[in-house]
Every structure is written in structure tokens, then in C-alpha cells.
Design brief:
The structure is a homodimer.
Chain A (H helix, E strand, L loop, with lengths): L6 E5 H5 L3 H11 L3 E2 L1 E6 L5 E6 L2 E5 L4 E6 L6 H10 L1 E6 L5 H6 L10 H5 L3 E2 L7 E2 L5 E11 L6 E13 L11 H4 L3 E3 L3 E10 L13
Antiparallel strand pairs in A: 2-12, 3-4, 3-7, 5-6, 6-11, 7-10, 8-9, 10-11, 12-13
Amino acid sequence: MSKKQNQQVYTSKSIREMEHRFRTNFVNSLSGFKGLQLVGTISKSGITNLAPVSSIVHFGVNPSLIGMVLRPDTVPRQTLQNIMDNQCWTLNNVLEEFYPQAHQCAARYDEYTSEFRATSLTETYNSLKAPYVEQSSIQIGLQLTERIDVKANGTHILIGEVIEVFMPQNIVEVDGTINIQESGSLVVAGLNSYHKTSKISRLSYPKVGKGLEVL
Amino acid sequence: MSKKQNQQVYTSKSIREMEHRFRTNFVNSLSGFKGLQLVGTISKSGITNLAPVSSIVHFGVNPSLIGMVLRPDTVPRQTLQNIMDNQCWTLNNVLEEFYPQAHQCAARYDEYTSEFRATSLTETYNSLKAPYVEQSSIQIGLQLTERIDVKANGTHILIGEVIEVFMPQNIVEVDGTINIQESGSLVVAGLNSYHKTSKISRLSYPKVGKGLEVL
């Protein structure tokens, strides 16, 4: 039995009654650590857009699907509009060297301003009509497979198939696992807390009645 | 311009042609670091279930919604069945003290075996018909709001409203932000790589034309 010091109970009622800004911070951090990606898109008139997104989810291996949640109240409309126009987007991991620039991309720039230019991040292109972040060490190009609009609050879920990936070969281990810590990817908590990682271990495939091994 | 040493390109074709197990590891780690939670549920016949899930997404503040993705090919059917039966589940963060037990919960136990008993984790209850993990420092109770079945590959998205939260009061900062690192939550990469975090900084709210401050 662990001793629960200073244990506090929050209910749906007490959360609803929190002061607006306090509640926003509380609920945004409640779900815990999240991976962080810069989502790169381009408008019909050629203006690039870069939005930090921490709601990236693995959706499947065959085909390789990655999804993300775009909340209507927080994400600039341009990201969704650009994806609907071009049916594609890029994911670019965020490194310690430029995380303040990634954070700044969440400021409400108007639709005529590119976050690349505003933050001095560098755009590069390959086969998709969407810009990659040159400074990122893992760059993923996705093509739209499915868009889902959530009834509960008008949030959008966009699922894309992995079309192309650019990363250093030496971070891919012999069994196919990508060494994410070695890539330099940061994690985020809540709206603004940035963290590095330190590896504890990799564990063997779990089986009933068999002990785990550290790989 | 960063120098891209050993830069490698992977295409949808080359990913599709990877050896099966290699591809599974590759694609599962591609989306980067993820938060990790143990999902607690109970069956109609009273058998508890605990499943590690790394696809937790914040869906909204008002009401407070948290979602998760359950892939049909990897998650035991019991989790989905129990949620549909009881309309609720719990999320419990994973700490360094018991991450091997959390990992072991992914083994394919039959429906008559509780992962709590199999891994010696302790179940506790409050107002919901779903067990919490006593050893976790942040325990969240959710009630089902919306279930979405993804056309692309039969994956399920479950969105729930936060009904109750249990955690130490001293990890909630004055502005409402929960100090996730202080809670001891780990992050995971791919299927089996566990990591601690070390904080870099918290940054101020980003505004157009204004510099960022470290909070």
C-alpha cells in the first residue's frame, strides 16, 4: 500500500467550476506527457504553415497510418484548410536546439504569414505538396486517408498514410525499432513544459507465465 | 543548414516490403515518444482487466475529454467489451517503480485472468465500475461520451469525459498546470522502450511579435 500524501480529489463538478485559465492548464496537462511534432502544410496561394501538435497517434502498421487530433478552438484554421486542399502534410520532430521556435509557431499569425519565416526555421520539399522542417531529424510525409469530425465538440481527427520518411540510418536498430531518444525528440506536458528523456530500459515481448528480460 | 549524416529515405513501398517484425517495430516507433497509461476496466462477471495504452489524446477542456485509440489487432478484446458494458474506464500513470509490471499487462492473458492478480498490482475503487491502480500517482476516471470506428482499418477511438481525478495536491502548480514530471510518469517509444524525463523549461504564452520568456 502506497501512502497517498496530500491526496486530492477532483470531480467533474469541481473541474467545471475552476477559473477558466486554471482549468485550461489543468485539463491540458492531465493526460500526461505527449510527443510533439511540427505539422507542415502549404496553402493554395503558396504560403507555408507550421503548427506544433501534441496529439499524434499511431493508427496501424499495414498500411502505416498516423493520426492527429486538431481542436477547432486552438489550432489555426490554416492547417486543416491546407490539408483539405492538398490532401497531405508533414510531421517534423522537435529538438532541443529549436524548441522555442517550435513553441512560437503556436502564436496566432495571420494567414499571410509563414511560421517558417517568422521563426527562421528552414523549409525543404520532396515529393509532397507540403514543407518539411530542415532542422528536424525525423521527417515524415503523410497522405490523407480519413477525416473524422467528432460530434462531442467539433474536433477533427485526421489519419494519413506514411508516404516517405527521412532520417539518419544509424538511429534504426537491427530489429527495426527507431531510437527516438537518439533522434533528439523532446516531449511536452501541458501547454508549455518541455522535457528531454533518459532511457531506463527496453523490455522483451511480454508472454503469459514468462519473466521479462531487459534487452 | 544542418548536415544530414547517413540520411536515409524510406518510402511507402520500401516500408511495405520490410520483413514483418521489422516493419512492426519501425512503424510503431515512427510516431515518436508517447505517454503511457494503464487502462482499468471490469467485466460483467467481475473480472478486472488492465491494459497498457500509449495512444491517449487530450480532446477538449469544456467538457474535459480524453480519448484513446484501441487497435483491434493488438489490444485484448476485453478492454473494449468491458467499456461498452459499463460505459467507463480508468487511466493510471506508469511509474519507474512498476513499469515492468505495466509492460507485462500486455501479455495475452485469457479472459478469466485479471492482470492485477497476474502482476501483483493493487486495485482500488471509487464511484465508477472500473478499478484504479493503487500504485499510480495520477488516477483518472472517465465516462464514455463517443465511440468512433475508423473505416481505414477497424480501429476504435473511445472518447470519455473526466468524472474524477485522484492525485497529490502538491503537484498542481498555482496556474493549474499539473507537474507531470514530478508525478513520476514515464514515456514510451515504440513497443518496449521506457524513459524518464528531465525538464528543460516552461515557456510563456506565444504571441505574434513578442519574445518568449522562460517561466
